[in-house]
């Protein structure tokens, strides 16, 4: 089985923005376990420039593009996703972002694994769940030449690939695909008078109030309903 980890850098956070860098790293199942292959990175020239506030995140500027660097077309994106050995599953940390830009037209409907959602379930005790925090919290010793700098597509994909191998020690790819289809399982209540409390310790009336809210964050409402469901079953 081949799991292809993908990370992108863009000119903004909405789908109207352009992909300007794509990194990918293959995680391959072999007889003695999971192996991480070397990263591949591609730059794509933006057609409408890069806002300075976005450059401040990934530090990609117009000077990084050669005169013949192409823009990210549907054809090039499909080739980047499918190039080399064909993947069975796509992976990203907080893959809802990648899915906004890399649609079914490029993936042919391949399933995704979100390592953020998986990490929230497997390691709820982690101090935070960004890929860089998890990298250090898990004590991963990664070659700095491959893992740095953060917020670049190749290094971020490299870090996520190694987090994926850690997750695969305790969860299957199939489990993580199912978790990816669901909202995030937040380890604690993220706001209000019970902020930081475990869902199991929240008063039932408070959970019922959250579960009724239509304007509240979907992940919060889902977690409240799941805890209420657990109490009903138990």
Description:
It is a single chain. The protein folds into two domains: about 1-180, Nucleotidyltransferase, domain 5, CATH 3.30.420.10; about 185-234, no CATH class. The protein contains eleven helices and six strands. The protein has helices at about 50-60, 75-80, 95-100, 105, 115-120, 130-135, 145, 155-165, 175-180, 205-210, 220-234; strands spanning about 1-10, 20-30, 35, 40-45, 90, 110-115. It is globular. About 30% of the residues are buried. The model has no long low-confidence stretch (mean pLDDT about 95).
Overview features:
234 residues; alpha/beta; Nucleotidyltransferase, domain 5; 2 domains; globular
What topology does this entry show?
Layout (H helix, E strand, L loop, with lengths): L1 E9 L8 E12 L2 E4 L3 E4 L8 H7 L15 H9 L6 E4 L2 H7 L2 H4 L4 E3 H8 L8 H7 L6 H4 L5 H15 L5 H9 L22 H9 L5 H16 L1
Helix pairs in contact: 5-8, 6-8, 10-11
């Amino acid at each position: 089985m081949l799991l292809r980890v993908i990370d992108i850098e863009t000119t903004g956070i909405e789908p109207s923005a352009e992909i300007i860098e794509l990194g990918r790293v293959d995680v391959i199942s072999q007889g003695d376990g999971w192996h991480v292959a070397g990263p591949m990175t591609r730059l794509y020239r933006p057609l409408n420039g890069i806002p300075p506030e976005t450059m401040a995140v990934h530090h990609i500027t117009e000077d990084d593009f050669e005169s013949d660097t192409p823009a990210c077309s549907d054809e090039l994106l499909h080739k980047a996703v499918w190039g080399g050995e064909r993947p069975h599953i796509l992976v990203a940390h907080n893959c809802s972002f990648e899915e906004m830009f890399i649609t079914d037209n490029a993936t042919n409907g391949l399933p995704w694994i979100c390592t953020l959602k998986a990490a929230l379930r497997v390691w709820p005790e982690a101090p935070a769940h960004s890929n860089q925090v998890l990298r250090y919290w898990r004590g991963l010793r990664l070659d700095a030449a491959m893992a740095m700098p953060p917020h670049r597509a190749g290094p971020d994909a490299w870090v996520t690939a190694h987090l994926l191998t850690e997750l695969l020690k305790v969860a299957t790819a199939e489990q993580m695909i199912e978790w990816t289809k669901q909202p995030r399982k937040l380890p604690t209540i993220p706001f209000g008078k019970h902020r930081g409390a475990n869902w199991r310790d929240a008063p039932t009336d408070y959970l019922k109030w959250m579960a009724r809210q239509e304007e509240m964050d979907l992940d919060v409402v889902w977690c409240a309903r799941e805890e209420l469901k657990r109490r009903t079953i138990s």
